[in-house]
Amino acid sequence: MIRYILFDLDETLYPPSSGLMPAIGDRMRAFLEREYALSPEDAYDLQKRYWFEYGTTLRGLMLEHEIDPRHYLDFVHDVDVKQFIVPNPELNRILSSIPYEKVIVTNADVPHAQRVLNQLGIAAQFSRIFDIVFMEYECKPARGAYERVLRALNATGAECILVEDTARNLATARELGIRTILLLQPEARTQPSARFADPAAQMKATACPPDADLCIEDIAQVGDAIAQLAFLPPP
Ligand SMILES: [Mg+2]
Question: What backbone torsions phi and psi does residue 163 show, to the nearest 5 degrees?
């Protein structure tokens, strides 16, 4: 029986077209350029390499450079979310109609998550925010990230559904019995032409991969998708 819905935050609860993640990517590269005296191109290469190898750029910086994660998180998330995201009362209504406890599971940090949820007008929908600090920086897609969340919720994987926009975060969740809904983002196809495209954007699925139990094209479909999955027998 389903008890919890685990929601990713960035580009799941608001669309990539908002431009918020590219703005945060700009801050990441500014951080790398300043701290390590890199050119914009070298900063981008490092950002990408760490994202692919370690799950987040931050994880790579911690393992290879022992940086202070708090300082990095504050710096990269220092953007005005109000310039990118508009309130979404329709999403609030959809989330209200989902009859399970909803939590956030994000590779960002709690202050960023709170700013995004407040701006969307959906903060009251979520009972808890599990962030990268809670995960002790062992971020998604590490299996340990999901194991920590399940322990904190005192739940089994079979009692949870994960809603994500990043396809590579699904496999480890599924290994734990968590059912998965992937947000497909055909619009991501236009982004890699940008000079410093978000590495995550290049990995977005435009067709439903085997690790997803269900795929949707708009977060507005999430209520129906959860209802559909909740009545299927566990995998
Ligand atoms: Mg995301």
Answer: -115, 120
- 186 CA → ligand 1 middle, Å: 15
pTM of this structure: 0.92
pLDDT digits (tens, 9 = 90+) for 7-58: 999 999 999 999 999 999 999 999 999 999 999 999 999 999 998 998 889 9
Specify whether 171 is located in the same domain as 193: yes
At residue 190, the pLDDT reads 47
Taking the centre of ligand 1 as the mean of its atom positions, its distance from the CA of residue 64, in whole angstroms, is: 24
- Domain span at 58: 21-76
Phi first, then psi: what are they for 10, rounded to 5°? Answer: -70, 130
CA distance linking residue 213 with residue 229, whole number of Å:
8
Distance 233 CA to ligand 1 centre (A): 27
Shared domain for 171 and 208, answered yes or no, is: yes
Six-digit token string for 221: 């479909």
